[in-house]
Amino acid sequence: MAYIFRGKLCGLICPECPEPLANVVVRLYRSRDTQTVTALAVANPKETFTVLTEKQVKDKPSSLIAEAKTDDEGNFTFELGDKERYQGEAFEIDIYCATVPHLKPRPNPPAPTQFSITTLQPRWRQMETGFVAVWDYCLPHRFWCFVRALFGAWTICGRVTHCATKNPIGNVRVRAFDADWIQQDELGNAITDAQGKFRIDYVTADFGKTPFSWLNIELIGGPDLYFQVETVLGAVPLLIEPPSRGRQADRENAGPCFCVELCLEQPPPPQDEPPPVFTHLGGYAYLTDINGAPPGNGLTIGDNRAFYSTIRLNGILPKRLNGNSMEYRFEARTTDATGAPTGPWTPIAPSQIARTKIGLLANYAPAFPGDPNPVKTRDYTVNGTAGPTEVVASFTMDGWIQVPQESNVFGPEGFFQPNGNMINLISQSLAAFGAKNLTGLVAGNSSTSTGQTLAEDRHFALRMRVREAPVGGAGVDAGVCQHVAINNTLYDNINHHPSWAGYPESNALGVAMLDIAQLIADGCHEISNSLDVLFTAAHPNLGAVTVSMSGPGGPYAFTLPAAGTPGDRFGTAAPSGWTVAALPSCAYIVRLYVQLLLTTGDSAPNPLYDDIAFCKS
To answer: Is residue 365 scored above 60 in pLDDT?
Structure first.
């Protein structure tokens, strides 16, 4: 009979701020001879919580019943039975944490931690398929914050309200600072949600470094916190606490978990337009659809694609910012393969932007009384060509795009309606991707056999900056994609099926080469009993590679040799489930299909093909 044990785990930053214990390992252990099981099973988990030493962890594997990993919401499920030698008895519950939620990446991460919560006798209920028990538990904040402190993880949970009404205030930015005697450290910032709640995560190094850190003297145990609240883009201050506020008893030496309520005497000024924000590369939201948070690989989530060619950067593009006309530009910087920055932010120049339709200009202009379509529209573009059907937005002298301000559909100026597109980035302009010269490469051999190395993805961060006109200046961030993988390497002098009507190809996106060994000496040679199909497929983002054959009785499948080096498939394809000798005498075509895992954000390149024909006698 099966025993289904499921539950949900969370930890309290403070009583008002729970977080799921996401992606931790739950381990169930049998009781040991030295334990008083009954007493432990009835004890409150507050009395049994223990962080284990390395030796204690090493002593427990022989008692392990099973383990399971929680999902992003902290849910877990065990199915226990004969395999686990389990019959419904009490067990000890441990949690193994390789990290903790929201921990900022940093070099030399701390070692994993395992802790015991309690010994539990589940309350089993018999169902048709077995026994079921449910156990939901939230670690008290003093325990969970202790665990987070072991990882150097510090968190501020808070809420912003209106002082008089206590109503929550959403969509304002909260900045947290440490009132260091020598320097004022910004620990981080966050935007409040509709309930006025915010969360700021930081690590020990964010407040522990001073100009005298080389002395290795810890002057204080924790940060002395004070806060500033401002409009989301920082243009209007709403609350400015002095650094001395951090020296008061309720803020000084704040612990790893700190909760605070801030109130504003005056609510923020109303906004008649949403704040600008860059959110997508084509149809991919970079926060949820791209593995861009360091140490992510910068590829799309789910289909593992790198970006290439011209990429549509888009999001929310209002006309005005804090009541003034808005200007924007994009900047890029290089990163390594894990998203760590390797260069400074560099503005995207107008020459790096392809024609981009950013919206429509609408005019009420009926062609005749009763015109069923009285509102006429023209495309509004960046880097387009002005004409009867198109209007072009202007650049400032320092390369910022001026958002069109036309706002009267009944007047001669018309009404600009943005569509969310910002720029079409010519990603080839971000770096010298170069080309691979494959002269001399023979199908069936590795793409590196001529001395060329495998191509590699390049890695970048992208951000949008916005500013008010005529204020100017450096502007503020309005969306940052921390890491995206891009590949625009081309391949020259690919010799397609040279044994039969071959031809060379250059400027190809990847390598797809096919040949038949029996035709190399004589392209008109007839095949009788043997068929050796030679193929080479290469690209750093290589997808599916298949070889098939059409002809009487087909299609026919082939078995390919196992992949060796990622991105480089080559060798001899063998008939799968059929023999050459049994083929009817006729003409046949062998096709190589190569999928490239690339995207512009809106479309993927067509698969690469190579075909070769032969006659069977």
So the answer is: yes
Taking only the tens place, the pLDDT of each residue in 567-609 is 999 999 999 999 999 999 999 999 999 999 999 999 999 999 9
∠ CA 210-215-219, nearest 5°, is 60
Assign residue 78 the CATH number of its domain.
2.60.40
* Residue 258 shares a structural domain with residue 337: no
Q: Specify whether 121 is located in the same domain as 11.
A: yes
Residue-range definition of the domain harbouring residue 321: 277-485
Q: Identify the band that residue 512 occupies on the pLDDT scale cut at 50, 70 and 90.
A: very high
CB-based contact 331:346 (threshold 8 Å)? yes
**Average pLDDT value for residue range 399-409:** 95
Q: Tell me: the pLDDT tens digits for 437-448? A: 999 999 999 999
Cis bond leading into 318, ω under 30°? Answer: no
Which SS3 state, helix, strand or coil, does residue 33 take? coil
| CATH number of the domain encompassing residue 249 | 2.60.40.10
Give exposure, 359-369, as e/b (b: 16+ Cβ within 10 Å).
Answer: bbbbbeeeeee
Q: How far apart are CA 601 and CA 146, in angstroms?
A: 43
pLDDT given at position 271: 64
- Contact between residue 296 and residue 194 where contact means Cβ atoms under 8 Å apart: no
Instruction: Tell me the pTM.
Output: 0.66
**Whether residues 141 and 156 fall in one domain:** no
272 in a structural domain: no
Beta carbons of 308 and 444 less than 8 angstroms apart: no
Q: What is the mean pLDDT of the chain?
A: 90
322 plus 409 within the same structural domain: yes
- Coil/strand/helix, residue 219: coil
Query: CA-CA distance, 613 to 587, in Å (whole number)?
Result: 7
Same domain, 299 and 429: yes
DSSP 139-193: E-HHHHHHHHHHTTEEEEEEEEEETTT--B--SEEEEEEEE-SS-EEEEEEEE--
220, 289: one domain: no
Question: Which range scores top for mean pLDDT: 128-132, 243-247, 311-315, 319-323?
Answer: 311-315
Q: Give me the number of domains the chain comprises.
A: 4
On whether residue 163 sits in a domain, the answer given is yes
- Which residues lie below 8 Å from residue 204, measured CB to CB, with a gap of 6+? 152, 154
Tell whether 169 is covered by a domain. Answer: yes
Nearest Cα neighbor of 432 from 512, 494, 486 is: 486
- Distance from C-alpha of 77 to C-alpha of 8, rounded to nearest angstrom: 9
Same domain, residue pair 306 and 448: yes
